[in-house]
Design goal:
Blueprint: E1 8-13, H1 18-33, E2 39-44, H2 49-54, E3 62-67, E4 70-76, H3 81-89
Parallel strand pairs: 1-2
Antiparallel strand pairs: 1-3, 3-4
């Protein structure tokens, strides 16, 4: 699947937000482990007010999952790895089993 066709997880954060900084390692781990099924983009809310408004981000941090240019899921506020993985599991295509 071309990278552009993969679902996009947008991580809205801020350098001044403690919860955002604590979630960075979780999001980085998900980005590495799901690199064949998911793209990840980190957005600094202080630098991209256009995206904040477009995706109606009211809390920092916020995760928004976009598939085919539509928001299909979101988590507002700090989240644990299991909560993020559960949200993704509902929307990501399973990887094929090795032959």
């Amino acid at each position: 699947m071309p990278d552009a066709a993969l679902p996009l997880l947008v991580f809205f954060s801020s350098t001044s937000s403690g919860p955002s900084r604590r979630m960075e390692s979780i999001v980085a781990h998900i980005e590495r482990s799901e690199r064949h099924r998911l793209r990840v983009m980190q957005v600094d809310v202080d630098k991209r007010a256009d995206l904040v408004e477009k995706l109606e981000v009211l809390h920092v941090p916020t995760l928004v999952l976009v598939i085919a240019r539509k928001v299909v899921a979101r988590i507002d506020g700090r989240a644990s790895a299991p909560k993020i993985e559960a949200m993704l599991a509902e929307h990501l295509v399973p990887e094929p089993l090795p032959a």
